[in-house]
Known about the structure:
Elements: H1 3-13, H2 28-44, E1 54-60, E2 66-69, H3 70-73, E3 78-81, E4 87-88, E5 93-94, E6 96-97, H4 100-109, E7 117-121, E8 124-128, E9 136-143, E10 147-148, E11 155-156, E12 165-166, H5 170-184, H6 190-206
Parallel strand pairs: 6-7
Antiparallel strand pairs: 1-9, 2-8, 3-9, 4-5, 4-9, 7-8, 10-11, 10-12
Amino acid sequence: MSLLTIVQRFCEEVNIDRPSTVMGTTDKQIRQIKALLQKEGDDLSGRGDWEALVNEATHTTIAQEDQGAIADLASNNFRYVRNDTLWDRELRLPVYIIDSIDWQQVKAIAVTGPRYQARIRGGRLLSNPVPIAGHVWAFEYVTWNWMTDSTGTTQKQYFTDDGDLPLLPQLLLEAGLQWRWKKQKGMEYAEDFRTYETLVANELSRNGLKRPLKLDQS
């Protein structure tokens, strides 16, 4: 459902006149509902690795330590890299992700190979040792963009049109809007919030495909 449809449904629920537009309205209540829905989407998008927000990036290595700005390599409004997804497709080996302590250690010891190690510092992807130019590195990342335009092709983070389509579960957006509205109005919202948290946990547990969880000793 679109921004307009979600807001209209919510207005019916709380007994507010249905708007014919959201982005073009001067009604303060409708504008507040839009702002609360934006806040809900921004917060909910960071609650887990929603598969709808996952993208793949590929990068052709250059023969230097600094491989470039991560926001340029992962161009769809980069948020963070998914763990254990960075691979060198020429070597068919993972690129190890290391933290600042390990990075300083390998720099001091002057490690030269054979496995590449990488980190993000200052928003730039760094590699040690310096990679061979022309290797394809691929990784998955999560975007900040949790909606698309009305055509479903252009992703974005903020509402700009009544026809904008959220990528996150509508049930959660509506439940989140419910408790946030009540909180803003000084109404009791604890039960709505508990229901919302249960819904989020359930949706995240079903999000995407899951590996089998084995509880035996093997």
